[in-house]
Structures are given as C-alpha cells and as structure tokens.
Write a structure and sequence with these properties.
7 strands; globular; alpha+beta; 130 residues; seven-stranded antiparallel beta sheet
C-alpha cells in the first residue's frame, strides 16, 4: 500500500482573520467553498462532494487561528492523515494568508494542489478578496 506525502501551501487572502476563521471552522462556512455540503455532529464532520462523502474528526482548533481535521476510514477509525487550515497574519504589514497542510499520494500531488488552488479561489470570491 502506498503512503501519502505531506505538503503545505500558502495563499495570501485579503480578509480579517476573524472573518476568515468563520469560513474555515463552521459547517456553513466550509459548505460555501470547501465542499458541496458539510454536516457536523459534535466533533465529527461529514464533507459531501457530489456523490462522495468523507468523514473527519475535529482534532484541534484555536479560535481565530487554525483548525485541524483528521480523516476517518470506512470503519470510522481515525487515519494518520489530516488537513489543517492555519491563518497567518504578518505583525508588521498585517497581511493575512492561509497555510494549508494536507496529504496526497505521490502521483496525485499536483492534482491535489490544483484542487486547493480552486477551492481557495472560491473562498476568495466569497470574501471579496480577489
């Protein structure tokens, strides 16, 4: 079985960290740009795209700064894989960016990065940060 590789991406976003956090940490916010629909029951989130459904557990969060989800497998057991969305703010310039940590199989790495670029593009449109 092949192992997924970890990668990080950073995107500048013209938004306040507080507003951006609402879009990365709530089911309604995530439904607007990340997945077609997002449901949550306590710390468990279900992400729905077309006919596909993925489950993840909210592993950690720090209000206004970051959120981390650990993916679950078909038996509802936690996997070693996660994705994390971290809001970075430059102390001097106050420029805001979002740092994404995710995993992909080696042969799907470029495709995964493109998917994030498209999703962040959607997020920027919603925030008016184009």
């Amino acid at each position: 079985m092949s192992v997924k590789v970890k990668y990080e991406l950073e995107f500048p976003i013209q938004s306040s960290p507080q507003l951006l956090y609402q879009y990365i940490s709530t089911p309604s916010g995530l439904s607007e740009w990340f997945a077609d629909n997002v449901n949550s029951r306590g710390e468990y989130f279900t992400f729905i795209w077309n006919d596909s459904e993925e489950k993840a557990r909210l592993a950690s969060k720090k209000s206004g700064e970051r959120i981390k989800f650990k993916w679950m497998d078909d038996t509802d057991s936690e996997t070693d894989y996660f994705f994390e969305l971290k809001i970075m703010e430059d102390e001097i310039t106050k420029d805001v960016s979002i740092m994404i940590t995710d995993f992909a199989f080696e042969d799907e790495l470029e495709e995964s990065k493109l998917l994030w670029e498209n999703q962040i593009s959607d997020l920027k449109h919603i925030l008016g940060s184009v």
